[in-house]
Every structure is written in structure tokens, then in C-alpha cells.
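Lab notebook: predicted structure, single chain.

Context: the supervisor wants predicted structures on file for every construct in the current expression panel, including those that have not yet been purified. This is the next one on the list. No modifications to the sequence; it matches the entry in the shared construct table.
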Amino acid sequence: MAPGLTGILLVGGASVRFGTPKALAQIDGRTLADVAWEKLGAACDERIAVGKVADELPLPFELVDDGIDLRAPIAGVIAGLRAASNEHCVVVPVDCPWLTVDTIRLLAEQTAQPHTGPLPGGYARSMLPELERRLEAGELSLRGVNDNTVVLQLAELRDADVPDDLVD
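Prediction complete. Output recorded below exactly as produced.
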């Protein structure tokens, strides 16, 4: 566990293509939420889960409500950064179970995002004003907020868009 790092787990997606809440989907007998929460705990000294409390997902940890009706990752990133105690944070979507603890730690420590895009990615609390400005203006993209990138293994960055993505 690295001191001074906050792990932010995004669990609030609509899961339209997936069909059921991704956080509750199983991989190797465990929910995606449990897998991600454990990895964030191994990589960071603080963990925050963000989503929609109104979804009433039976999660084994407290959920910070993102506070808006819109379902967009930027809302979860903002809510997570607001709740974080540390400047350096890593934001991990619940549907990325192949990320390693080392990669999570790297993204947080370097405040970097993968070469493929903004999530999962390292974000700093100091980025909040720009993120809040974008949300207020209706700009929902996280691209361009953080230009610091690292090249990662594509296999780790896979996400689960449909249930079959969780089957090897």
C-alpha cells in the first residue's frame, strides 16, 4: 500500500450493453466490485467508491453518491476527487478486473493515464477546477484533462462491456 494515494472506484455506469449492474457481475467467483476494491486497497492508503446511491447496489462498502442525475464518468471522477484526502488519486472503472496492483499504483504515483485513454487513470485534486468547468459547460469528456501518459499492456486495460467479456 502506498501512502498518500487515493483509489477511486467508479461503480455507477448504466450497464446498458452489459444488461445487469457490472459491479455485481462475477469473475472467478467474485464480483467485479470486490476484485477492484481489493486491488485499490493493496495499491492505495485510501479507497472511495463512487456511484448512484439510488441504484441500491448491495455492495460491501460505502458508496459516495456522485450527486447528479447524469450518468457519465466525469461525474464520478469529480465526486471522488472532492472526497479524496490525498492530492494523487487513481480512478478505476469497476469493469477493468485485469488491472494489476502495480499498474494501479503506477497510474496514481505518476498522475498518468494509459496511452489508450483517460480511464483507468491518475488524477490530481488540483484538476478539479477544470473538471468542474467542463461538467458545468456540458463537456463530458475526460480527454485532455491529463496529458501525462504511460504505455501499458493492452491486456490489463480490457474492460467488460458484455458478460462474455468476463469469460476467458
